[in-house]
Amino acid sequence: MKKIFLLSIITAFTLVFISCSNDEDAVSNASEEEIVGVWNLTALEAINGRSETTIEGTVIPATFEAVGKDFQTVVTFSEDPQTVVSEGSYTTVLSTTIGGENQTQEQEGEDFFESEKWRLDGSILYFGADEEEVGFTIIELTDSKMSLRYELNETVESLFGVSTVTATYNMTLSK
Length: 175
Prior knowledge:
It contains two helices and eleven strands. With 175 residues, the chain is mainly β.
């Protein structure tokens, strides 16, 4: 059971940055000038997380949710070149249910973004480049607050089997 729990954690958090999002709640007037600057990570959560892992023909369903706390992370969006760098730390509290068994684990996180390129296309804020690019939908953008969301829906093969993972990730940055 520990292997399955660890697989769920690994799958959930290694996939955090490989999805694209399209959201009807998106802002329609985002500009690059509003994004450039120094932001503090103030909220981070994964909701409605579900995974199904198939190991040797057996399907093992799991659910998970995660919430961040103890935020000490500063995220800097530079203009020319368009890079994003984060420094600091935060803690993620991950709650997983597998086979009716609930488990909660805390994980330390550092360097939320690491010198990634960023670009804005409408209401989607992209990080990375080429095939590694990830799109976050901007849900709210003011002078002092930026709320981002992305929908994860991925299938991944690992040493343990094949996992399908879905979740909604929400992040809030404040100036």
